[in-house]
Amino acid sequence: MSISFPAITDDQQAMALALQQAERGMYTTTPNPRVGCVIVREQRVIGAGFTQPPGGNHAEIEALHDAQANGHDVRGATVYVTLEPCSHFGRTPPCADALIRAGVGRVVSAIGDPNPLVAGRGLERLKAAGIDVSSGVLRDAAHAINIGFFTRMQRGTPWVRMKSAASLDGKTALHNGKSQWITGQAARDDGHVWRARACAILTGIGTVRGDDPQLNVRAIATPRQPRRIVIDSKLALSPAAKVVSGGGTWVFTASDDRQKHALLEAAGAEVIVAANADGKVDLPQVMQELGKRQINELHIEAGSKLNASLLREHCVDELLLYLAPRLLGDARDMFDLPALDDLAGSLELRFHEVKQIGADLRILARFT
Q1: Cα Rg of the chain (Å, integer)
Q2: pLDDT higher than 90, residue 98
Q3: What is the DSSP pairing of strand 227-231 with strand 200-204?
Q4: What pLDDT was estimated at residue 236?
Q5: pTM surpassing 0.70?
Q6: The 318-324 sheet, strands edge to edge
Q7: What pLDDT digit, counting tens, does each position of 253-296 carry?
Q8: SS3 breakdown of the chain: % helix, strand, coil, rounded to 5?
């Protein structure tokens, strides 16, 4: 245990430290949840850990090993974990059983596991073994760090975050298409932080043809690049596009042109047909498919037309907007939405967070 921890005075303080551990797995645990754990004995943290990449140890096992490696006896100690210990065999054995074998005296979880394979069974197993169990400490913070995992488990689709950078009058580019750079460097770097925490980044064929983006994380160091996804109804995507380079890109289309499929697949992309009755990509079906493919958080950076289509189809949970302190006048909009005759038809959101990033404003707004 290389980290120095303060003396523990209450459950909230200990769980806050466990959440800090969970954040260390922000970019690596997917599709598993980001979980942290600390073990406390006589007001001292004697073990700490966080969930490792898929197939590796869960947070509780890491914390137990950490305590053991430093010569600490965990019998009778209190374990603080940000998600209910698992009770089933997946890639690894049940953590609840490991805690029972270790002889800990108390387990405090921040929140229950939404996975139907667990869903309370982990805590029940601990309680049946005579361990003092409680839950709900810093619950909201624990939910927030795994909002995508909870969403996928509860509704079968990812948590979808749509990002856009614009002027104060909501314009993303000049009338001639020029957009570099509306926002400052700090805001652009911050956008890459949000890219990095996502399991996948999605854009449309219009953005690919116009900007040829790499659609990856570059501004910060990350051990894992998110999956890249392109919505392309007619399969106009060039195999030479940067978003295809390196392989692994998923292309959702309405086209059954086998020759185009073959060219993209030869370049390393996977082509998935998801057509609706209008011959376009069925966006709700895409979200269902991404849930099946264990995408927890989906980050969208697309043009105004695809943005509007995703909004109309109710496929978006949250807007991540960067607003620069400038006005562009008659220019391109964030969302190509139709005109309304009545405010009752508007899409309503609530502000979740507003923060200044450099010279720009970052707004997180969630749909009600």
Answers
A1: 23
A2: yes
A3: parallel
A4: 96
A5: yes
A6: 270-273, 250-253, 227-231, 200-204, 297-300, 159-167, 318-324, 360-367, 349-357
A7: 999 999 999 999 999 999 999 999 999 999 999 999 999 999 99
A8: 30, 25, 45
* 341 CB-near residues (< 8 Å, 6+ apart): none
* Catalytic center residues: 60
DSSP strand pairing (200-204 vs 297-300): parallel
Q: Kind of pairing, strands 44-50 and 36-41? A: antiparallel
User: In terms of Cα–Cα distance, which of 37, 137, 139, 14 is closest to 85?
Assistant: 37
* pLDDT tens per residue across span 145-177: 999 999 999 999 999 999 999 999 888 878 777
CA separation, residue 242 to residues 173, 180, 212, 216, 222 (Å): 21, 18, 6, 10, 19
Degrees, nearest 5: CA angle 281-312-161: 85
List, for residues 199-247, the tens digit of each pLDDT value: 999 999 999 998 999 999 999 989 999 999 999 999 999 999 999 999 9
What does the H/E/C string look like for 193-225? Answer: HHHHHCCEEEEEHHHHHHHCCCCCCCCCCCCCC
Pairwise CA distance, residues 95 & 99, whole Å? 6
